[in-house]
């Protein structure tokens, strides 16, 4: 199914009233993918961004084109993820050890689901993070010529 990614984002962000800045800069926001999977992937990243930003959340959702791909980026100013956990958070049931790090409820499913969706569509997932400063998750979707 051909999707207008900007239209999908515009629909799903209506659920988030505050503290979400949306910048849709991609000039070619059209991809061939499953609508529900794309929606669920972005929703999972947004939910995490808010969950793991306990104070003064400023969450940014952006799209842009880069190297022949459409990039969807979700950036937060939350607790961040320490380097040793970064590759593990995409595994099923993995959660960064709680306690003094965070005490947010969850099953550790969301990112493994995003990972599965990305794999099935040949999308690239990237995570940049700084502890105590925030995280940025990017979904990079190759555009077909
Ligand atoms: P679920 O999504 O199943 O409700 P969850 O949010 O704990 O539970 P994931 O979404 O898979 O599970 O995330 C795995 C772990 O990665 C989280 O428990 C958290 O430790 C860490 N994490 C995910 N997103 C962020 C983020 N934006 N900032 C900081 N840590 C994050
Ligand atoms: Mg989650």
UniProtKB/TrEMBL annotation:
What superkingdom heads the lineage? Answer: Bacteria
Histidine kinase domain location is 1-145
Name under which the protein is recorded: histidine kinase
Q: Which organism is it from?
A: Runella slithyformis (strain ATCC 29530 / DSM 19594 / LMG 11500 / NCIMB 11436 / LSU 4)
Q: Which residues of the full protein are shown?
A: 271 to 415 of 415
